Amino acid sequence: MIEMTLDIAQRAAQRALEKGREIGARMSVAVVDESGRTVLMLRSDGASFMGIESSRAKAVTAANFRRSTRELTETAQKNNLFWQAAPIVTRGELMNSEGGVPIKRGDRVIGAIGCGGGQSAQDHECAAAGAEAVYAAE
User: 9 and 111 in contact (C-beta within 8 Å)?
Assistant: First the structure.
């Protein structure tokens, strides 16, 4: 059963954009359900044209692997061949770059949020803030 709603996606995305403004990064944000299907995409004024696509790929990756892309980048060296091939095989659907964080309800992943437009650490910080806004509201 799909538990990700537009309301949850909006809460997460709005908080991520707010965090971007706080830290001076023009963010693009994508929220996907647990299957990686797009629920919502938003872009702050002046954000990079590539940010929306990269934010979606980060969200899809976090939803698929059920963990943050930050964690995945830390283990990527062990699976270097996989991460070289994955974006090609999935036609850009996966991206091993910081900025994707699962959104959970209890212990279940119900989707993920991806952010792009800042430096890697900024992208992760904004995505984490968006995911935490969902946790805090429940």
Answer: yes
Mutual orientation of helices 51-65 and 120-137 as an angle, nearest 10°?
A: 60
Look at the alpha carbons of 25, 97, 137, 6 in this order and tell me if their dihedral is positive or negative: positive
Contacts of 14 (CB under 8 A, 6+ apart): 42, 130, 133
Compute the average pLDDT of residues 15-21: 97
**Residue 33 per-residue DSSP state:** E
Question: Quick check: 30 and 40 in contact, CB under 8 A?
Answer: yes
Question: Which two three-digit tokens encode residue 61?
Answer: 């990756």
Close Cβ partners of 87 (under 8 Å, ≥ 6 residues apart) = 57, 93, 94, 95, 96
Could you give the 3-state DSSP secondary structure of residue 34? coil
Q: What is the distance between the alpha carbons of residues 103 and 112, in angstroms, rounded to a whole number? A: 5
Question: Do 100 and 62 touch, CB atoms closer than 8 A?
Answer: yes
For 6-137, CATH gives 3.30.450.150
Give the separation between CA 107 and CA 130, rounded to whole angstroms.
17
Q: What tokens were used for 110?
A: 């119900």
List, for residues 1-17, the tens digit of each pLDDT value: 679 999 999 999 999 99
